[in-house]
Amino acid sequence: MEKRGIATVVLSLLRDVTEKVGPPRALCVPFRHGYPLDVPSNPARQRRVIKAALELLIRPRSEAPVLVDYVP
Amino acid sequence: MGDYSEFGLKIRATLAVYRWQRIDPMPWAELGRPVAEANVALVSTAGLALPGQALFDDGVKGGDFSFREVPSSTDPQCLVESHRSDAFSRDGLAEDRNLVFPIDRMHELEREGAIGRFNARCISFMGSITAPRRLMLETAPRAAEILVGDGVDVALLVPV
Fold first, then answer.
1. B73 at the A interface (CB within 8 A)?
2. Is the interface score ipTM higher than 0.90?
3. What is the number of other CB atoms lying within 10 angstroms of the CB of residue B1?
4. What's this model's pTM, rounded to 2 decimal places?
């Protein structure tokens, strides 16, 4: 997707795997598998995760790969 | 949370020796406009499909590398889950599909102006692809082509 001009940001559930694979932008969330957006039926907390991920899109290429830990 | 301790012994052993493919060179697409003006697509690897679409096939060696197109107008709660992995709990997504396929959240972000537009179509893959070559060479490029055709600026990739 990046090669086709689409900027990507990925939520990561395993930081060390993401470090090995090396996507351009990743938000590492401290949640267990099955819960990438924190908790079910809590729109505010889910939106907060997505917004934090989208904020990585303003980072310049000089900071790549952008790997940020999410703090709930 | 979010580490190997949540997995059973078999999966931990597999992950310990699995040869992850590094993206090298790392591609980088510059977002040429503010997120608040961008067309954002949702790409999930939670293995969800619309009722009537083919479920992900557990019999595909190396993992089912296909994808499903899901309209953004879909009620996420109607999506059917057929992920082959047993390494995660289904309890959360059974209650609320937005936890892994946040269609409703993206509409809300569009309404509040945090994103310019929520793309009219989402892409649904299944993760746990242990042999990713066909994914990398065939289906991921095809999905990218579809999103390019939609005029997508940003893809949010959500795992499970």
1. no
2. yes
3. 11
4. 0.95
